[in-house]
Task: structure prediction
Amino acid sequence: MSQASRAAAASEAVRPPGEVGLAEFLARAEARLPREPPGPCDPTSNPRGDHSLDPEGKAVAPPGPHRRAAVLVPVVPRHDSLFVLLTKRSPHLRDHSGQIAFPGGKIDPHDETPLHAALREAEEEIGLARERVRPLGYLDPYLSATGFLVSPVVGLVDPTAPLAPNPSEVAEIFEVPLALLTDPSRYELNALVWKGQLRHYYAIPFGERMIWGLTAGILHNLHQRLCV
Result:
């Protein structure tokens, strides 16, 4: 075993219970994440979304046709730990203002794949150059309550990559330890009435911030796919 391999093994050995190191995270991503984007959703299927969280199973998926979108789930290695980069949307936006989100948005006709859309949006929103992202694969599509079928792309981000939030879209960029986001005790299952329907959703308190809705749902899927 080389000196670098011994150092990596030692780093993995001293990690707190439940925390995943970079080497293990990359190995799990290689084994568990598809490299090809998900195909168009079968209109008769019931894709994963907040509607699937109803404990009584009464909620139904938002009807189609669903609008296609993609987000980047940016994982940043720092100081022998992993972090997930998130944004706070600008307060003046018409939709979801002030909410916690991943970089991403609608898939445009010229986007070759959801990966291209996610990288383009990340560059536009937070100035993250696409060559500073190593794509690792796709999580399950997630159907939002507003009818967007979102393809999440997990990417390993160069920790030295410069970031510059676009103030018209992003108010703040911050990072959350992956270990916190993969702790199932951190997830709260809440409910509210939205457009006359009872909507269930995950929420993750993080200091003064609340990560909830689609973002928390995708993070829960990340936990299930890579950290269980």
